[in-house]
């Protein structure tokens, strides 16, 4: 509530929701939440998959000879699988805009949110802890810490 002399802050408008998917069960649940919110607020739903290219930086360990990095065939397989799975997601959410990008998921998700003018990011959490969390890190945690817009994280329900 504004007091005298203050300009009231307009309520936030939810017009574009960016939801990420790595095609895991936790991502599927997050996409369901995003779709529900998009329908409720008549917002555009953008579904994003980021092909993590960090595997290209891990050298193979040949018995002898130069270090060999992952080749084009591996990258092509990742691209084709992402395209196939995203087509299945598109069938479940026909009104959604689907996008596939390549790179490190942490910055790419934040960049995509800006590029599409998202008002909200919705993403699943895997619930990693301990060593797995330390080694892999949490993409969701990074996005929450660095996003300039609200982020809704959706955990995988406990069974």
Question: Could you characterize the architecture of this molecule?
Answer:
This protein has helices at 25-41, 72-92, 105-116, 130-136, 139-146; strands at residues 16-20, 44-52, 97-103, 120-125, 151-155. It is of the alpha/beta class and 159 residues long. Strand 1, helix 1 (25-41) and strand 2 form a beta-alpha-beta unit. It is globular, with a radius of gyration of 19 Å. The termini are far apart.
TL;DR?
With 159 residues, this protein is of the alpha/beta class.
Q: Specify the CATH architecture.
A: 3-Layer(aba) Sandwich
Rg, Cα atoms, Å? 19 Å
Number of spatially distinct domains: 1
Instruction: Give the overall shape, derived from the CA principal axes.
Output: globular
Distance between the termini: 42 Å
Assembly type of the chains comes to single chain
Largest sheet: 5 strands, parallel
CATH topology heading = Rossmann fold
CATH homologous superfamily annotation: HUPs
Could you list the spans in which at least 5 consecutive residues all have pLDDT below 50? 132-136
Strand proportion, as a percent range, falls in: 15-25%
Broad CATH class: Alpha Beta
Structural class: alpha/beta
Helix residue percentage: 40-55%
Offer a few descriptive terms.
Rossmann fold; 159 residues; alpha/beta; five-stranded parallel beta sheet; 5 helices
Task: Outline the fold blueprint.
Blueprint: E1 16-20, H1 25-41, E2 44-52, H2 72-92, E3 97-103, H3 105-116, E4 120-125, H4 130-136, H5 139-146, E5 151-155
Parallel strand pairs: 1-2, 1-4, 2-3, 4-5
């Amino acid at each position: 509530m504004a007091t005298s002399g203050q300009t009231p802050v307009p309520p936030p408008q939810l017009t574009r929701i960016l939801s990420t998917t790595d095609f895991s069960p936790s991502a599927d649940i997050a996409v369901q939440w995003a779709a529900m919110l998009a329908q409720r607020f008549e917002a555009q739903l953008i579904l994003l998959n980021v092909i993590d290219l960090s595997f290209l930086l891990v050298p193979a360990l040949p018995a002898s000879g130069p270090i060999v990095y992952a080749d084009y065939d591996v990258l092509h397989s990742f691209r084709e699988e992402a395209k196939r799975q995203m087509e299945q997601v598109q069938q479940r959410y026909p009104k959604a805009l689907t996008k596939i990008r390549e790179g490190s998921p942490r910055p790419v998700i934040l960049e995509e949110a800006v590029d599409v003018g998202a008002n909200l990011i919705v993403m699943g959490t895997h619930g990693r802890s301990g060593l797995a969390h330390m080694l892999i890190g949490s993409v969701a945690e990074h996005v929450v810490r660095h996003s300039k817009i609200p982020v809704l994280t959706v955990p995988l329900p406990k069974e």
